[in-house]
Amino acid sequence: MPTVSVKRDLLFQALGRTYTDEEFDELCFEFGLELDEITSEKEIISKEQGNEKAEGASDVILYKIDVPANRYDLLCLEGLVRGLQVFKERIKAPVYKRVMPNGEIQKLIITEETAKIRPYAVAAVLRNIKFTKDRYDSFIELQEKLHQNICRKRALVAIGTHDLDTLSGPFTYTAKRPSDIKFKPLNKTKEYTACELMNIYKTDNHLKHYLHIIENKPLYPVIYDSNGVVLSMPPIINGNHSKITVNTRNVFIECTGTDFTKAKIVLDIIVTMFSEYCENQFTVEAAEVVFPNGKSYTFPELAYRKEMVRAELINKKVGIRETPENIAKLLTRMFLKSEVIGDGNQIEIEIPPTRADVMHACDIVEDAAIAYGYNNIQMALPKTYTIANQFPLNKLTELLRHDMAAAGFTEALTFALCSQEDIADKLGLDISATNAVHISNPKTAEFQVARTTLLPGLLKTIAANRKMPLPLKLFEISDIVVKDSSRGKNEPPLICILKAFFYYENFNCV
After folding, report:
1. Same domain, 106 and 186
2. Burial grade of 284 (CB within 10 A; 0-12, 13-18, 19 or more)
3. CATH code of residue 438
4. Which of 78, 133, 418, 472 has the least C-beta neighbours within 10 A?
5. Beta strands in 8-73 (DSSP E)
């Protein structure tokens, strides 16, 4: 679960009420969140880097809140406050609108060169936005949280935010050879080619984790404005020219990636969270994106859709007895505006652009259960009464695991599938003599057969941990699969024990 850090006093100010730590913990639980830790910037630095590094750090109290991985709308202070306020019925869910600009629409043109590396892009404009230091920090932090979660560490989507007043449209999203891309990157004072930047960022603790995404590609993606100014080289770094600051009033947002759906979701989340600070609240200026086939689309989509769920289904699945009207109120508290229609048992739910996690009826049922309160659901015995008991074989293997751990061995859990080479050639055996069950269409050479012995997995574990302190004392108790006369057969768990000492790159197994 992602963790969001928010300043306690700033949070309470936005909520319009001061809570005790216990009260806020209870509120989080009611809303399906968890207050993970109460700390401060100084305390965090002290734990991670020592007291000397922590000197001068802020003592402001921070709440670390665990958020469900699919609730992208709760990854910043703005979304968290809005969600809690709607949940407590203090405000109504805002309506997000996309509007066309008074003048010429900002245009992003995608060239065909991007097709083999990052073919998709979407864009939007936050017009007349007012940042403060806290709002600006939250804006940057949200982008980072999205990068780490839905964007899968920028592999699927990369976000770029730019000061529109320093740029001139239309913009071009293309791909060029690394040696042909040269610009001044964010927070640098001189220009570098893309090749030079990749070498520089190999030692950067933050950016080095993203280099592999485009490092071995013949072309790198890049975005220019009409004057040839580089906005960004996604997914690595933005240009310094269009860097946003607290004083930025108009923000151009571009999201590039390999997953078109997720790119649209990410753009929707960013603009819905921070359009609150625009002169016209919750209003986003559209941008036009022209694809290589000549088709053009306007973004953000900010699409609302309707879903129908019967009240009796929710009552049955959750285990409650509520009227359709009460269920509609529960769902409305979860940012899902609902009303009873038709025969009086049908509930129409409006899914806003912030709730991309709601895909099926079961998601709606889950939100109804959260709003009702898990602690308020009456416990009931299952209709079938049985007494569970542990299988004797499982009991034996658990006892063996405890004894091996007590003897100083570390348990390994390796893959049940392996390559033919692992169970045959590397063990000096012929594959036909192993009695192995083969995968008919393996996707990778590493998973061709089901293992017939635990030894290869442990040997590979030792090989991958040769730099660890010696001796390595490993064991594994797991199933193997062998082929009988008619089909594959799952054999009872076996135990394999290895104790490794290294001598001149070799090891002995005991």
Report:
1. yes
2. buried
3. 3.30.930.10
4. 133
5. 34-40, 61-66
Going by the DSSP 8-state scheme, the letter that residue 491 receives in this structure is E
Together in a domain, 115 and 155: yes
Quick: pLDDT tens for 33-77: 999 999 888 787 777 677 777 777 778 899 999 999 999 999 999
Contact 338, 331 (CB under 8 A): yes
Q: Do 168 and 245 belong to one domain?
A: yes
The 3 state secondary structure assigned to 156-193 is: CEEEEEEEHHHCCCCEEEEEECHHHCEECECCCCCCEE
C-alpha 78/C-alpha 82 separation (Å) is 6
Length of the chain (residues):
510
Give the pLDDT confidence of 385-395 residue by residue, as tens digits: 778 888 888 89
Q: What is the maximum span of the chain, computed from C-alpha positions, in angstroms? A: 80
For residue 58, give both structure tokens. 């802020």
Mean pLDDT of all residues belonging to the chain: 90
Q: Is residue 274 part of a domain?
A: yes
Spatial distance between the Cα atoms of 348 and 457, rounded to a whole number of angstroms: 53
Q: What is the pTM of this model?
A: 0.77
Neighbouring residues of 173: CB distance < 8 A, sequence distance ≥ 6: 108, 109, 110, 111, 114, 121, 221, 222, 223, 254, 256
Residue 347 shares a structural domain with residue 423: no
Q: Are residues 45 and 174 in the same domain?
A: no
Residue 379 carries which side chain, given as an amino acid letter? M
Residues 430-466 as b/e (b if ≥16 CB within 10 A, e otherwise) read eeeebebbeeeeeeeeeebbbbbbbbbbbbbbbeeee
In a domain? residue 277 = yes
| 136-187 per-position pLDDT tens digit | 999 999 999 999 999 999 999 999 999 999 999 899 999 999 999 999 999 9
- CATH number, domain containing residue 342: 3.30.56.10
Give the other-Cβ count within 10 Å of 198's Cβ. 19
d(CA 289, CA 255): 11
